[in-house]
């Protein structure tokens, strides 16, 4: 996500969302914002409300209280216009007509996408292109009934991408996929985000999403208990030194260091970017600190998640 995208108007904004089914409160006071080019991963234990949140964001379920806007349009009161920019797979794998081929099913989706206000014309070339991107060219003219679970899952993502959405919402897009299929979805999501699409996906695969999501929202018991900015976390480095306290003082004097803490025999510092490592090393040397080792301080999202959910 670029700096300009950070200041761009939100692609999706959830404000004070509460959802009740009868006496059961499934979501309570949820607020979140996703900007163009951002990959936002929603995670949480079974039953924490991820699918309900996704269904409400796509307009399939109605909020009990609160609002959801998609590119400044209210998803529930300006539905068709808001959803013209949306691609989504909410039930995985998405439902298709089993007696029709992959191409025919996408043609049906394309016809639907062209209807209503703000409808988008999807060409045959575009259908071929998304099938190729999802590595389904070989299956294009086979009936969906003959598709494997993973192939149907990928056809769902192809269908969601068809009309060039500005917001893509995927409920557990990698469940049921083999490692190559998972990697393919990563590449596609990253590519879409790079071209400015906002992507929201739900997942249980924390170590996998830590490699490509920008933000992780943790739901627990229907509340968004934390929002983790992974980019900020991953720009941390650890230095094994002879004097961690002196190292902290030296690093804190640098304008780009956001935070430095001693964890003997290490000092952990948020440098903002890898390119700052040589300057940090020079500053340590100038302060008379001996450095024996320098390495990225990998943020363990899984450990962090366990801690947050257990203490929520
Ligand atoms: N239509 C419904 N009517 C009543 N309760 C519902 C309905 N849909 C979901 N719930 C309840 O809401 C809670 C959250 O369900 P949801 O499917 O959103 O969780 P989830 O985080 O997606 O779970 P999982 O990780 O298992 O997919 C659950 O307790 C579920 O029983």
If you had to describe this structure to a student in words, what would you say it looks like?
This protein is α/β, with parallel strands linked by helices. It has two domains: 3-231, P-loop containing nucleotide triphosphate hydrolases (Rossmann fold, 3-Layer(aba) Sandwich), CATH 3.40.50.300; 235-298, Alpha-Beta Plaits (2-Layer Sandwich). Helix content is 34%, strand content 27%. It has twelve helices and 14 strands. The protein has helices at residues 3-7, 50-57, 79-83, 102-113, 124-133, 149-161, 179-194, 206-209, 230-234, 244-252, 277-286, 301-310, and strands at 12-21, 24-34, 39-43, 65-70, 73-74, 86-89, 167-171, 198-202, 215-220, 223-229, 236-241, 259-263, 266-270, 291-296. The strands form three sheets. The chain has a six-stranded mixed beta sheet, sandwiched between helices. The protein has a four-stranded antiparallel beta sheet with strand order 2-1-4-5. Strand 9 and strand 10 (223-229) form a beta hairpin. Helix 5 (124-133) crosses helix 6 (149-161). The chain binds adenosine-5'-triphosphate. Residues 21, 24, 26, 44, 46-52 line the site of adenosine-5'-triphosphate (ATP). Adenosine-5'-triphosphate binds at residues 21, 24, 26, 44, 46-52.
């Amino acid at each position: 996500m670029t700096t300009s995208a950070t200041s761009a108007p939100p692609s999706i904004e959830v404000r004070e969302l509460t959802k009740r089914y009868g006496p059961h409160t499934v979501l309570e006071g949820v607020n979140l914002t996703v900007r163009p080019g951002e990959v936002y991963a929603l995670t949480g234990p079974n039953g924490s409300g991820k699918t309900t949140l996704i269904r409400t964001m796509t307009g399939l379920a109605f909020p009990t209280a609160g609002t959801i806007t998609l590119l400044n349009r209210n998803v529930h009161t300006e539905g068709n216009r808001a959803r013209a920019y949306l691609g989504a797979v909410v039930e995985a794998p998405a439902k298709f007509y089993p007696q029709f081929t992959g191409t025919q099913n996408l043609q049906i989706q394309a016809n639907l996408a062209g209807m209503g206000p703000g409808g988008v014309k999807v060409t045959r070339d575009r259908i071929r292109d998304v099938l190729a991107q999802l590595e389904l060219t070989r299956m294009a003219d086979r009936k969906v009934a003959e598709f494997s679970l993973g192939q149907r899952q990928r056809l769902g993502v192809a269908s969601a991408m068809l009309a060039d959405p500005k917001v893509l919402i995927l409920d557990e897009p990698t469940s049921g996929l083999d490692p190559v299929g998972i990697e393919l979805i990563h590449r596609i999501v990253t590519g879409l985000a790079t071209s400015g699409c906002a992507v929201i996906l739900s997942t249980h695969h924390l170590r996998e999403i830590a490699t490509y999501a920008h933000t992780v929202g943790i739901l627990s018991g229907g509340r968004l208990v934390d929002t983790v900015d992974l980019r900020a976390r991953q720009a941390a480095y650890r230095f094994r030194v002879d004097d961690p306290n002196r190292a902290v003082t030296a690093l804190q004097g640098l304008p780009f260091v956001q935070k430095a803490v001693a964890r003997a025999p290490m000092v952990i510092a948020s440098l903002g970017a890898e390119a700052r490592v040589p300057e940090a090393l020079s500053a340590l040397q100038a302060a008379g600190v001996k450095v024996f080792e320098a390495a990225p301080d990998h943020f363990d999202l899984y450990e962090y998640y366990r801690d947050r959910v257990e203490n929520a």
